[in-house]
Amino acid sequence: MKKLLILCVLAVAAFSLNAQVSFTALEISSAKPMQNSAIKFTYNKKFSPLVKEAGVDIVIYQFTDNGRYKVIEPAITKKNDLYIGNFKLDNNATALLFGFSYNDVKDNNKKDGYIVPLYDKDGAILPESYSSVYNLYNGQAEYLTGLNADKAKAISFLEDALKNKPSLKNNTAFFGTYLGSISSKLKGESIPVITQELEAYSKRANLTEKDYILMIGWYNRANKPELKEKANALTTEMKTKFPQGEWQKNELRTAFSKEKDIEKKEQLYKDFLSKYPETKNDKLTNDLLLEQLGSAKANAALQRKDFDGYFKVLEQLSFKQQASLNNNNAWNMAEKDENLEEAKKMSWQAVNYARQEWKEPKEAKPDYATNKQWKEGAERTYAMYGDTYGFIMYKLGNYKEGYTYAKEAAGINKFKDAEYNERYALLASKVLPDAETKKIIEQLVEEGAAASTTKEILKTIYTKEKGFEDGYDKYIAALEQTANNKKRAEIAKEMLNEKAPAFALKDFDGNEVSLASLKGKVVVVDFWATWCGPCIASMPGMNKALTKYKDNPNVKFLFVDTWENVEDKLKNAKDFMTKKNYPFHVLMDNKDEVVSAFGVSGIPTKFVVDKNGNIRFKSVGFNGNDDALVFELSTMIEMAGM
């Protein structure tokens, strides 16, 4: 539920070069905060949508010049409706995002957000700050605080800045963001404009290696032969000018990542460390290389069924990496019903590590997570690993022990996750009386948290109890009605009425399909990618939904392949669909323009567009429940068709 009060918008701060930040609910000690400075703030709940809530959860995101962010959770002093805190900015900070919420209620300053740029000693916004603020409006804040992405506002922010100070283009970070805004605004027509900007930028004196890397990247992105030649020429120029530059490290890292031969991969890693002794700045990247090498060696040992070798390789890795590999491999082995005793050993290590990190963590909290997110993440990881162990116990016939872990995993997820509930129900049917298992599954069905496999267990119990199947369909329908009524009411609250971006994309056969050509139909637009696990997991459910409407001429499903990072995107998508044998009508978003136009921040994301070309619903992610997905989409389609 969202409640809004009148708040002072950030437009003054966001669209004027020398503006001062001003809010109604939030006061900051410095109108123009600077790097490495102390900040005191006061939040007045009385002037916010949280006025009737029992408290306020406060988190501050500090963005830095490398594009990353870290979480700040200052100690808070409460005086009636006032929440007072202070903190110090880092010397590379570029912008701040304040988040105020309580349970599901959020204060996003009447859709403008609590976004604060940082300033230099002359009172001007830092060039790098523009990039941070642009990214926040462009979707990053949506992920962090729920502030709806506003691409038009993000673009206007940069354009207004350039009108006031054209020299901002000389800043590498700003210029890169500016080119991104041109691409977002002009889409397919942006290449000539971007090329012109790059030509002018290349004539600057004292170009840095970062400047070269930026230009090379944009020329290559255009995917035109003549521009690739420019990129190649700039690459040669960069290597000559910076013979010991970072590009050498990047090339070696790329070669390492692509190498499939284990011995060659290990030698590349040793050569890299020999040539570039590790520095503090390199540690994170080098650790990732070591994890890649360890993972490759461990998986190679598994393929040979060399379990002693596998566990020996794991000793070289962190406990966290060991647990992740062990859990994934144990699950795969259990699914195949292979080497279950070894799978048990792997899973047990993962479970013990995860329990330790949940109860008494030894790992340091990452900068990007709040304390709450960190603790909840550790708990969910334990649930995931415990669920795997429960599954293995089921396969080994140790139902009682498996039930304990499966129930705990499902409980941590509040019995809302259909996939975890499946193992819980499966093991419950082995250790509990039928009447008790029946009651458990009935409740899961009524909550809309039971997948098809769980309902099959219920059907078996029902048939055993009655002695026949007659009446089961009516029985299960009555249970599902409770969940469906609740879900239908929730879906109705999420109904939108926004003009869908116009687009025209080609399908596998080279035929152009436009949204305009489908006017008069309800259109389901599903953004996906071949590398996206949740996208792939949702496809059986999407296939069921497609089958349900295959004879309805007024409903059209479009599956938009996007965000692919392969050379031949068409072949990649075709091969995937051929292997999976799905009858989907796939469109190729090769330049990632349509996904950008729809403001997608994560996939899978589905949009339901009505007969007049208006977005009526948006659905993000997949919860593992095919039946729930089909019901959700069916309800959205029906409501959009009204």
Q: Describe it for me?
A:
This protein is of the alpha+beta class. Among the domains are: 11-149, Immunoglobulin-like (Sandwich), CATH 2.60.40.1930; 325-489, Serine Threonine Protein Phosphatase 5, Tetratricopeptide repeat (Alpha Horseshoe); 498-640, 3-Layer(aba) Sandwich (Glutaredoxin). It contains 23 helices and 17 strands. It has helices at 11-14, 127-145, 151-164, 172-186, 191-202, 209-221, 225-241, 246-258, 262-275, 283-303, 307-314, 319-336, 340-359, 371-396, 399-412, 418-431, 434-446, 452-466, 472-493, 533-548, 569-580, 593-597, 626-640; strands at 26-28, 38-44, 57-64, 69-72, 76-79, 82-88, 93-102, 105-107, 114-117, 498-499, 504-507, 512-514, 522-528, 555-561, 586-588, 605-609, 614-620. The strands form 3 sheets. Strands 10-17-16-13-14-15-11-12 form an 8-stranded mixed beta sheet, covered by helices on one side. α5 runs antiparallel to α6 (209-221) and α12 packs parallel to α14 (371-396). It is globular. The two termini are 24 Å apart. The model is unreliable at 1-18 (pLDDT under 50).
